[in-house]
Specification:
10 strands, 172 residues, 10-stranded antiparallel sheet, alpha+beta
Length: 172
């Protein structure tokens, strides 16, 4: 997975995205910068938005977006716009739920993968909600706040139908 900063602007009724750079969310990146105000000396749950993270990084949320590339080395394009992150911080680790809007999933690029990832309009993006669960190796007492291991078995994407089903099972 690669995390990217995009510039965005509305053009003729659609949002235009232009890739600016790779960005760091874990470690001393945008997640910790945005959530540290919620941390103390006890276990705590918190939620931060894309706006919180962009602001913490010195970026204008009106003209920037955080995007995850879930398949950076594939011949198709899978991009999701990060909307929020919920965490529960323990002394030494923090499980997370990331909420995205789907931009592209296994999309065949009209020209090259790089061209589509570099610049696109969102007029054909479905923008359905997708969630993913990850964790950070850090908490309020210690740790690096770097990503824990992620793989196809520890970083599953959940679309709304799966999420709804799991919620129903949790609620009884």
């Amino acid at each position: 997975m690669t995390f990217l900063l995009y510039g965005k602007e509305r053009r003729e009724g659609v949002m235009h995205y232009r890739q600016l750079k790779t960005i760091t969310l874990a470690g001393d990146g945008l997640i910790y910068s945005a959530c540290k105000k919620h941390l103390g000396s006890n276990d705590v749950g918190w939620t931060i938005t894309d706006q919180d993270m962009l602001t913490a990084g010195g970026y204008n949320p009106d003209t920037h977006a955080l995007v995850i590339d879930t398949a950076p080395s594939r011949s198709t394009v899978s991009l999701f716009e990060i909307k929020s992150i919920c965490g529960y911080t323990y002394a030494t680790w923090t499980p997370l739920m990331l909420t995205f809007e789907q931009l592209f999933v296994d999309a065949e690029p009209p020209s090259t993968v790089e061209a589509l990832k570099n610049e696109f309009d969102d007029d054909e993006c479905e923008r359905v909600i997708v969630r993913e669960f990850l964790y950070l190796m850090g908490g309020y007492a210690e740790g690096s706040w770097n990503w824990g291991g992620n793989s196809r078995t520890t970083a599953a994407l959940l679309w709304e139908d799966a999420w709804s089903y799991f919620q129903q099972r949790l609620l009884g």
